[in-house]
Model the fold of this input.
Amino acid sequence: MKKVTIELFSDVLCFWAYGAQARIDQLKTDYGDQIELNYRFIPVFAAAHHRIDRAWQDKGGYAAFNRQLHESANDWDHVTLNPDIWLHNAPESSQVAHLYIKALQLLEDQDVLPENKGLDRQGYTLFEEFLWRVRCAFFRDAENVSEIATLDTLAKSMNLPLSDIHRKIDSGMAHAALHLDTEARDRYLVPGSPTLVFNEGRQRLYGNVGYRIIDVNIRELLRDKQSGEASWC
Done:
């Protein structure tokens, strides 16, 4: 069976990646084993406060940024945005969460995680479920996901092996895996978060892209026996 690999580049603190999860959910429902999702993480909010200060200092600061996010989310009924987002308990950096998530991803790749029973969403791996819960912890619950204690609490709630996760971080293996994501970002010229990369970098969809556009790209790749070769367009 032909399978399409999709590389998903995002930052866990990216509002648009949080909202786009519904499209990823639909892809998993529609295509199942026909697609393979490869999650990669990029440092858009690696220095979160510096980024927001620089972009919003002349526009009303954090209060204005908060208002814009809520205005953008007004028409969304699939996610919840906390009233105090970025105003209270705001994280310093997304990189702490990225390292933690990469450590868990490494453990999943090694097939050493416990059986994924009792997850909120069926059809998801423990890694995918944890990634979603990190995003919800920030956007929905306004928790500081740049603190290891917050991430440990989330991991404990899922009965994940904390000692193994910390070992991957302490050994440098999670750092190395995260660096490879940055290298892939540069290799594919990924412009930001979220970006979906198909066909070994030949196709990229960046930003708040509608589901039908994503869908037609996948259907064409599944249909086209020469998708790995030069395209007519």
In short: Residues 228-233 have pLDDT under 50 and may be disordered. The chain is about 50% helix and 10% strand. Residues 4-223 form a domain with the Glutaredoxin fold (CATH 3.40.30.10).
